[in-house]
Specification:
The protein is of the alpha/beta class. The protein has 3 domains: 3-62; 69-160, 2-Layer Sandwich (Beta-Lactamase); 169-413, Rossmann fold. The protein is built from 13 helices and 15 strands. The strands form 2 sheets. Strands 9-8-10-11-7-12-13-14-15 form a 9-stranded mixed β-sheet, sandwiched between helices. A hairpin with a 4-residue loop joins strand 1 and strand 2. The longest helix is centred in the N-terminal third of the chain and has 19 residues, at 26-44.
Amino acid sequence: MNKKDIKEALRKDISSLVGTNQNIDKNFIVNRARVFFERLEKTNKIEIDNSIKNSVVNSLCNDFLGLGPLQKLMDDPEVTEIMVNGPGKIYIERNGKKIEADAKFDDSAHLRYIVEKMVAPSGRRVDESSPYVDFSLKDGSRVNVILPPLSIDGTTITIRKFLRSIEKVEDLVRLGTINQAMADFLVACIKADVNIMFSGATGSGKTTTLEVLSSYIDSSERIITIEDALELNLRQDHVVRLLTRPPNIEGKGEISPRALFRNTLRMRPNRIILGEIRGKEAMDYLQALNSGHRGSLSVIHASDPIDALTRLETMALYAGLNLPAWAIRKQISQGLDLIVQHQQLQDGTRKLTHITEVGQLEDNNINLRDIFTYKIEELTDDFKVKGNFQAKNKPTFFQIFKKKGIKINETIFT
């Protein structure tokens, strides 16, 4: 028997006992493996090398107690993202660079076993009738899975790890994502109930920034979050987390973000946080902004502030209310205050490239005023981006800070 066959036989042996032993731990696996190896050697009159035994046991411990070959990558604090392209190819992002990892699955069945183990606690499902899914792990890491035949080269997993090293705005300053002036301004905006939309591409840091800034919301406020997958990890006690639901195997029972958003307005929220604006709920979001729900936070995928407004307007049109474009733009200009634009640069670093105020509607166009920007100066020979943050304009809503009793130095805008 080769190593793969030995591992599979031992896996079946242990699996047959797991149902009657819910408190399975490493000692259980080690003891069961010792009995298994003794029996296997005696029956087949062979001697299995200790290195093979140790390798099989360690691998099965990771399978039963963790996420198989992904576990050591999950435990590595320098790894921020894990990308599985079928059983034989695993890539990671470390220090902003994507490289191939020294890890792989035994085969497609091994990969599928780990996928099922990851999905099960979330209450979601992924199978032939529903071949892709988004969910979160217990530690807050976000996961996307897509199965063949949609994924041609095998089951694909993308894990965006929850970064515990980024908890306060000072951490963003330390990492160079923003400077101190921007940090002071954004914290003041949160405390002053400014409506903010966080924009950027996938992996640019939108959700991380939102989580960090949300920690400055007063603990007395009632916060309601709406998400497709549980990504946000707010630190306040008075938080109600709402989760959309996909249709069941018969295609029924779906609960959309729009349905949850409408119900949220009946729950007396102080703050509404929309994990991601994707479709028709954009219209309900705009109506909420214009009906006194201050301090709302949301996320949108867009390449720059102008694109963010265009996408928001387009998705609001999906609602089918037959409103003219100018009416939707009017709601955007009156309800949304600030766009915070994120970008991952060529060297892997993440920056807030624009903090932009949403102004009034003039000649059917929304005026945008940059408060802060990041200007790239050069890309060095070793592919490091050099640039600097620049203060551009004082926000027109600056008086809100004074009315709220929030102290902020006006010189940060010069």
